[in-house]
Amino acid sequence: MQFSIDEVSKEEYSAVVGVWEASVRATHDFLKPGDIERFKPLILNQYLDMVTLACIRNEAGNIEGFVGVAGDKVEMLFVHPATMGTGMGGALMHYAIHSLKVKKVDVNEDNSRAVAFYKHIGFKVEGRSPLDDEGNPYPILHLQYQD
Question: Which residues form the N-acetyltransferase domain (predicted)?
Answer without folding.
Answer: 11-147
